[in-house]
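Thread: "does anyone have the structure for this chain?"

Original post by V.I.:
We have the sequence but no experimental structure in hand. Need at least a predicted one for the grant figures.
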Amino acid sequence: MSRTEVQAPPETDKTAASEAPPPGRPGARLYALDALRVVAALSVLIFHFTGVDAATKANWGVNPKELFPWLFPVTSYGSYGVQLFFIISGFVICLSAWDRTPGQFVRARFLRLFPAYWFSIVVAFVVWRGLPDGERTAPSISDSLTNVTMFQVPLSARHLVGAYWTLWVELTFYLIFLVVLWKGLDYVRVSVFCWLWLLSSVLVQQDQDIPLLGIFAQPLNTALFVSGIAMYLMYRFGPDLKLWGLLGASWLVMQSDLVQHADQLRHDRGMDRDPYIALALVTVFYLLVLAVALRRLEWVGWKWLATAGALVYPLYLLHEELGWAMIRVLYGHVGAWATLGITTAVLLLLAWLVHRFVERPSQKWLRATLEKESRKRAATADG
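Reply from O.Q.:
Generated one for you, tokens below.
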């Protein structure tokens, strides 16, 4: 979840130049990616509020299948917006890391992720303590503090917000991407990295005694990230047979894990989703991002999409626990559809406020402070 502006292709070394196609022309801001990120965020939001009968019954007081009988069969697939996020993340993180040092990449990711995340932790803590859900126990103080690190998964702490689980997946992607970034990014190095990472995600299925591979090379998520990287390479250098092969391999690994494993985990929650409909949906996501990579959506240029795209991250962080708390308060007074509309509108407004008055100022202050300290250390070293 980061900027979507493309820089001019860098000079490549002789090996990359001899094996890679000529770099494509630089592009302007990719508004189509902003649009896809908005679609992904709203689909996850509407899924949580109307598409999970077992989880949302406690908040509405009635199964959403009864409240939204024609909407539920559609929004129950909204969770696959997360898969769209991961594809886009592979594309955009590769884009934003190009021509950057590992230190610059880490700093950029820190500034992008943590200010809004820390604010959402405060909001979630207040919601849990001030607007309690009688059917669930609030996370402990220790778990709440552990969430500040964003490492609650390896530290076995409970998420303050269920949607935080995707942030750990993103973090593992960034950590492993540092391996290739350490030597600098070029066509050959990145494509070889993708093949090795994808292969590792397949082999780990046969050997469960390598815990690190299980963390850093989950087949479904790896395939999605790799597909995004492959499509970015197409965007930057132009498509070729090797990249089509990489993209096809990522799709094959994705479909295998999605059909065989992913939906079985949610079958007991009453959603009863057809894995092949889910596969068709994720395949459409592949095609949409591919259209961006092949420059078929450059006609999408509405300026407001940049603003909408900037709201995606704070909206994603805030919507779940805060949204459910609003639903519990409003539903008995204004009815189901009004509650859904008001809750969504308020969350969008709050996302804008967080972006405007929390995220941007804190990023600016942190960036200036880090740069000042860096210059001070450099001056001390020179002296």
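V.I.: this helps a lot. The first helix runs from residue 14 to 19.
O.Q.: and Confidence is low (pLDDT under 50) at residues 1-26.
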